Amino acid sequence: MSDNIKKLLLEFICRNFMVDEEEVPLDKSLVDAGIIDSIGLIEISNFMEKEFNIKIEEEDLTRDNFGSVEKMVSFIKRRIES
Amino acid sequence: MSRSYERCTKCILSAAFPRIEFDENGVCNFCRETILYTNESDSIIKAGKQIEMLIESSKGKSEYDAVMCYSGGKDSTYTLMLAVKKYGLRVLSFTFDNGYISPTAFENIRRVTNHLGVDQFTFSPSPENMNAIIKASALNPIYNARTLTRISSVCNSCISIVNMTALKISMEKKIPFILAGFTLGQIPLNGIIYKNNYEFLRESREIPLNKLREKAGRFVDSYLTLPDSLINGSDAYPHTLNLLCLEELTEQEIIEAVSEMGWRAPGDVDGCSSNCMLNSFSNMVHQKALGYNPYELELSHLIRKGLMTREEALVKIADQPVEQQARVMNELGITEHDIAHLDQLYRKI
Q: Is the CB of B348 inside 8 Å of chain A's CB atoms?
């Protein structure tokens, strides 16, 4: 399941933020990498809600959950399974 | 794919726009694939319903229902009218004065807020501080490449101060909504409604804020951060609503509606602004640094939606009065030499 989540997330990031997949670090913050800004974070959380049919609350918006692609994938997986 | 076109033949995105590719007819990939800001009417309808429900549950519980970021331009004037007349909100109107607001825009603010019976106040940072922020934003790559596809660096600094000030006001007064006058194209579809989360915002803005601190001074914190007392004393953050995104209107329809409240078009701004005399300078700097006008994305979106013709958009971005740019450069102490090699500096972002 994680591979599929990662694939969909990376596709969205590449398409929406105009980067190639090899430019997206998997273990670093997309903000720190200069790929997204504050509006970008909102876009990603909205994409996750829609694509994976999960609910994201204000308190979920932390570096622990959104600090990298890998952290986002884990967060989505946890939320789907809960 | 051909890259010989200077500009898309359908919208106005130019060859310098990031990731652009033209087909054999000169149509760009953004027009063909609607990569950005797609017209998802179901998402707009959903956002509209969500906004109505939120307003219904929060209205009348505070001194004001909403803080309106009111620039005096036509879009925020229309948004203020929507808030008061269509949604029945009790609005506190707030204007950020960067020192370059057209006198006509201030007259518009007075006339419209009087007409709508709305309380209004203006926040004016000291010219010394504000000019330092503007100068640092113009001459340095502060923001990331993605941000700069939809807004100039100088505009983004001003808007960041507007957003942070509105957040402070709403938290101090426990006002549930912040209203902004953005349209789709200026913001993505998901930005019609969102809940502010300061930690979220702070983390995402840390890198540009550090660059601004370095180039302008530590004083920028007073405009671009929240005090701890406010963060610790708050149990809820407001929602930001972009009500104008829910409407499908041409520029002419907006102008006609706001004119009925006494709004007049300023004669001392460029073709892309209806309130700010700094805009032409900001656009010129963006063009020099990145090779395209910062309004291309927004205007191209309007063209694709059928709300503006390509010719009208081209006229707008061509209307950049050089005398205004010269006046601003003189005020800021910026020379031609300072901006001559911005493209080399921005290659690093």
A: no
Confidence of residue B220 (pLDDT cuts 50, 70, 90): very high
Number of structural domains in chain A:
1
Q: Which of B44-53, B104-113, B187-196, B304-313 bottoms out in mean pLDDT, i.e. has the lowest?
A: B187-196
The whole domain housing A62 covers 2-81
pLDDT recorded at residue B40: 64
Percent of chain B with pLDDT over 70: 96
Burial class (CB in 10 A: 0-12, 13-18, 19+), B9: middle
Identify the structural domains of chain B with CATH numbers, from first to last.
Answer: 1-35 (no CATH), 38-349 (3.40.50.620)
A37 and B194 in contact by Cβ < 8 A?
no
pTM, whole model, 2 decimals? 0.89
A62–chain B Cβ distance below 8 A for any pair: yes
